[in-house]
Amino acid sequence: MQPGKNIAIKVPLHRWEETVAFYHDKVGLSVSRELDNSTGFDFGGMTLWIDRVPHQSQTDVWIELFDDDPTAALSRLGSPRRDELEPLTDVTGHWTSDPAGTVILQRREQMR
């Protein structure tokens, strides 16, 4: 099995605009496609869709972002440190979240 080409984050209507702005303005992703209720971003060979869902009460998607300096990246994002979520074994990074509550592992990529 191979990963798909899309990741969707279902976002409550009241948090959608600020979540789209987070990925565009703070993470720095490029918009690849815009639909009435969804914005797609280029995400390392995949498309990250931020879907506006009027009856959604919360999100529950975990993703990862790579950076050479995960601590500095966390500061640039202005996101909370949430390292209590799960232990990070053999990983240099931090757990955090976006404005909609999506959990993000901000980490340094492993050398191959």
UniProtKB/TrEMBL annotation:
This is Glyoxalase-like domain protein. It comes from Pseudosulfitobacter pseudonitzschiae. It comes from the Bacteria.
